[in-house]
Amino acid sequence: MSRRRVLSIVCAAIYAFLLAPIVVVIIASFNSGAFLTFPPQGLSLRWYSTFLHNEVFIQAFMTSIRIAAVATGVSGVIGSMAALFTARAQPAVANSVRMAMIAPMLLPEVLTAIGLLFYFYALGIGLHHSVALIAGHILLTLPFVYINVSTALRGFDWSWEQAARSLGASPLTAFRRVTLPIIRPGLINGCLFAFIVSFDAFSTSFLLKDIGVATLPLQLFDYLRLNFTPEAAAVSSFTVFATVLVMLLAERLSGSQRRRP
Amino acid sequence: MSRRLLLMLPAALVLIFLIVLPYANIIVISFRPLSPDGAYGQGFTAANYVTVLTSAHYWRQIWTTIWIGLVTTALALLLGFPVAWDLARNRGRSQALRRAIALSPLLVGIVVRSYGWTILLGNNGVINRLARALGLTQSIIPLMYNRFGVIVALTHVFLPFMILPIMGVLQELDPALEQAGRSLGASPRTAFRRIVLPLCLPGVQSGCVMVFILTISAYVTPMLLGGMRVKTMPMTVVSTLIDAFRWPLGAAQALVLSLCGGLILIAFMRLTPMRWNR
Known about the structure:
Chain A has eleven helices and no strands. By secondary structure, chain A is mainly alpha-helical. Chain B has 278 residues and is mostly helical. Chain B has a domain at 63-232: MetI-like fold. Chain B contains 13 helices and no strands.
């Protein structure tokens, strides 16, 4: 057997390993029986309907969406600003800024969350009004926006913006008509990734949630410790489908923007 | 110039107020005394560190955590390298699909992925049922609630963090370099070892560092797959903080673990180039 053939067989096995747990969850979600059994005892959407009628899960889902939207919005703005700064900074400055901006991703999530927990208590805010929770999610999402916008800015020529200025555009117009279209694909991708990361985050939410607040991953984790019905699989699969849908939509969105002259 | 600095201001404030100060505060809290009627008392003491450092119980857990981290990192490298190579070099029609599969774990929540593994590895899970149906075994193969299950699931959960940086360096690597080595008489194996490996070392290093950090601080996966029978340090830290409400001790536990992890990373970064640049 040739080397190439061996490599492709090995890789196929690894791809199967990567997909296996996700596929299994999706199959389990269509189970019509009351317990998680394999192979499923017949197909049905029963557990999806149970999930959609379960107030607890729906509420958690809405909380997750809300937190992710706020965190992504904030990170989207300040991450892009930092990326714009880095692109024009001296190489030495740019390097240290880059390291600092990626730091939240490299630091252990649990440790950062513990830090925020102590800190917000010391400030007297505690975990009320989800301020600490949102702060934690901003840290989680910031590097993703920053990295993606920075990548989009690679090769950007600042004389383009100056050209627009010299033709009479205000700084804001020059930014909106020249710079923004160029960073848009990176910004969309970055925000999308940020949103998904926030939506799926566990440790940060676990340590920083206010009493009575639960995001979907927290609710799912709680449920899994006591229950074994396929409802958890339906909830999980629902999030997988939603993610894929959003990804496809964004692919369309950022693709069509790029083609526009 | 000053207007340009304004662009950096919000991000700088976030980093200072939400990273630098909270981390400094963890260190401060770890030196506070325990208090019976609050999260911590006033004054300073090293007692929490003494408790952690002199306890065989904690050292066993730190060792378990680091051992799981090292094995997971090695496994992720073993599985991640071929995939990174395949994605960087093999530009078939299926490249987009393969890429999506390789990164798919990133887009699915960690709770969902760990849950998928419990369905696969459980005592009545897919693999055990299959083995019994095929007559391979009559008894239950213990795949979960032990280190094996935790390591398998952790490897899966963090594999993309190994694949991405290695793929990055391999894409930059010109295949002509390897061919040059081959044309000068090197065997494919020698060309790989002497040319490809040293050049993709930065990617391998950052992949290993990321996976190791993520693994030793993982909480959900060991919790769901280990079912309290595999005790890792992050689980202890969380229960000290949340259940026992003993913040200074939890902070000291977390910092001792981070310090041990950091020392291992430093040793790793020192040793790797020496081995390959010989």
